[in-house]
Structures are given as C-alpha cells and as structure tokens.
Design brief:
Blueprint: E1 2-6, H1 14-29, H2 38-43, E2 54-59, E3 65-73, H3 79-83, E4 99-107, H4 118-137, E5 142-148, H5 149-157, E6 163-171, E7 174-182, H6 185-195, E8 203-204, H7 205-217
Parallel strand pairs: 1-8, 4-5
Antiparallel strand pairs: 1-2, 2-3, 3-4, 5-7, 6-7
Helix pairs in contact: 4-6
C-alpha cells in the first residue's frame, strides 16, 4: 500500500514516522566512510523536514514502512538548490511550479542492498509508480531526484535512475546524485515493471484521519 502523509499531519502518525526515521538511521550507518558525527546529523531529521514536505510511504502487509521518500516543490527551498548552493547546476536554480524534488529515498534492507531482491524491486516500483501518479495529478512536468550513491546505483541497475543532472555532489561525507524524470508514460514504465501487480492508488492518511475524527464526533 502507498500512503501519503503531509508533513503538517505527521504528529498524528508517530509510529510510521519513527519507522521512516529508523530506515534513515540504518542507511546513515551503512556509510562507514562518513566522518564522526555525520551519521547523527543526517540520520533522522534535516532542515528540509521542517518545511512540511509530502512523505510517500510504502507499507507492507503488516502496515510497516518498507520504503519512503519526501517531496518538496522547487518553487521553495530544496536540497538541490540550497543544500548544494547551486553548485550542482552551475549556479542555476531549478525553480518551477511544474517541478518537484524527491529526496531522502530510503528502503528497508539488511546491510548493503543486494543486486537482486524481489521485495526491494517491488518497493522501488511502488514508489516510482506513485511518484509519477502524484506528479500527474499535480500537473507537473518533471520530478528531480536527489539520491545518495548507493541508491542511485540501485536505481541505475534497474533502469530507472532518470537523466543525470549532476554527479558527485557531497554532503556530510556522502556522495549524492541529482537526476531528472519526465512525468508520464516513460517514467511510469520501468517502475511499473518492478512493482508488478503491487500497485494501487495512494491513500492520503490525513484524509483518513479527518474522516475518523468526523465519525467519532457524529
């Protein structure tokens, strides 16, 4: 299941947020080459989480978080434009109401990501299909992905890494890559092939909570 969680509603779903932060922490610890302290600075929260992004979560059959990413409009503050101070794009800021940024992609895995894993493939596929659907609903033309080296390699191996905008950006000891996806059928196809039949329209958790509260008061 794909769940959408607006940042302003995250306090209503502490378990899901804790599980997402746990995936981030595990990913940070996997980078043994990072300098001392970097794991803790990037592990759970960063400045961009304070901007109330839209979180996209993959929930397994037990409704536990198997993967996640966050979305921010490029018309505001983003990782590509601000964390890297435009260095990745020769000082040109990517700002458009038709382009959003996807970042902090995390996946549940034990240690390094295996070259082939059905569960990881399915999670990547679900996130990509949902991302394309969200972008189409919002009438976007493109999505920029900012991914760390291991995840960029994982996406590249599966033919869904997008068009490279910038390589070897570095933050807190981690190499990051910026890629561009054109919203539509070309973006959807490789992710859908990974997801198989594990695709369904995203569910907005904030809407469900509002319905629950309304029902309780009636």
């Amino acid at each position: 299941m794909i769940a959408l969680l607006p940042g302003e509603s995250r306090a209503l779903f502490p378990r899901l947020m804790d599980e997402m932060y746990g995936l981030r922490l595990a990913a940070a610890h996997a980078h043994a080459g990072r300098p001392s302290g970097a794991v803790h600075r990037l592990a759970v929260l960063d400045y961009f989480d304070s901007l109330d992004p839209l979180y996209v979560l993959v929930l397994d059959e037990r409704e536990c978080v198997a993967g996640a990413l966050r979305l921010l409009p490029t018309s505001g503050v983003t990782m590509l434009n601000d964390a890297f101070a435009g260095a990745a794009t020769d000082g040109i800021r990517v700002e458009s109401p038709l382009i959003w940024e996807a970042s902090r992609l995390t996946l549940r895995a034990a240690g390094d990501f295996p070259a082939a894993d059905v569960a990881i493939d399915r999670t990547i596929g679900q996130l990509g299909v949902a991302l394309n659907a969200i972008a189409q609903t919002a009438a976007l033309t493109h999505v920029i992905g900012v991914f760390d080296e291991s995840l960029h390699r994982l996406l590249s191996q599966r033919g869904c890494a997008g068009e490279t905008l910038a390589t070897q950006m570095r933050i807190d000891g981690a190499d990051m890559f910026a890629v561009l996806y054109e919203v539509g059928a070309a973006m959807d196809a490789p992710f859908r092939s990974l997801a198989g039949d594990a695709t369904a329209p995203p569910i907005n958790l904030a809407d469900l909570e509002r319905l629950r509260q309304t029902g309780c008061r009636s």
